[in-house]
Amino acid sequence: MTRRPYGLVCPISRACEFLEPRWTIQILTELWNGSTRFNDIRKGVGNISSALLSRRLKEMEALGLVERIEDEAARTVALFRTEKSIKLEPAMNALAEWA
């Protein structure tokens, strides 16, 4: 993903850089609603390809918004919200109420 920073030191602009890529907010919403498995997130988000969802989740993990936990014994992977994404939830709720 090519990032084009706004070039501003404004905290809101910085937040927009995290949330700007398409599907990021919808994926976070699914995580906030309790989905932890890839297929559950894909079904909840809707019209997103598996390849794009996988790419977005990797990007979100690199940004510290998602944590990926592998259970090698059960051969499963779970995705969880990080502290950073949990702190974002009230702001997103306020934005949703405003909209």
Describe the fold and architecture.
- The protein has helices at 11-19, 24-32, 38-45, 50-62, 83-98; strands at 66-71, 76-81.
- It has 99 residues and is of the alpha+beta class.
- The protein has a single domain, classed as Winged helix-like DNA-binding domain superfamily/Winged helix DNA-binding domain (Arc Repressor Mutant, subunit A, Orthogonal Bundle).
- A two-stranded antiparallel sheet has the order 1-2.
- Helix 2 packs across helix 3 (38-45).
- The mean pLDDT is 88.
Keywords:
99 residues; alpha+beta; Arc Repressor Mutant, subunit A; two-stranded antiparallel ribbon; 5 helices; 56% helix
What's the quick description here?
This protein is of the alpha+beta class. 56% of the residues lie in helices and 12% in strands. A two-stranded antiparallel sheet has the order 1-2.
User: In terms of per-residue confidence, which ranges show pLDDT below 50 for 5 or more consecutive residues?
Assistant: none
Number of strand segments? 2
Number of helices: 5
Order of helices and strands: HHHHEEH
Gap between N and C termini: 28 Å
CATH superfamily: Winged helix-like DNA-binding domain superfamily/Winged helix DNA-binding domain
CATH-derived topology: Arc Repressor Mutant, subunit A
Number of domains: 1
From the coordinates shown, what is the CATH architecture?
A: Orthogonal Bundle
Strand order of the largest sheet: 1-2
Strand % is 5-15%
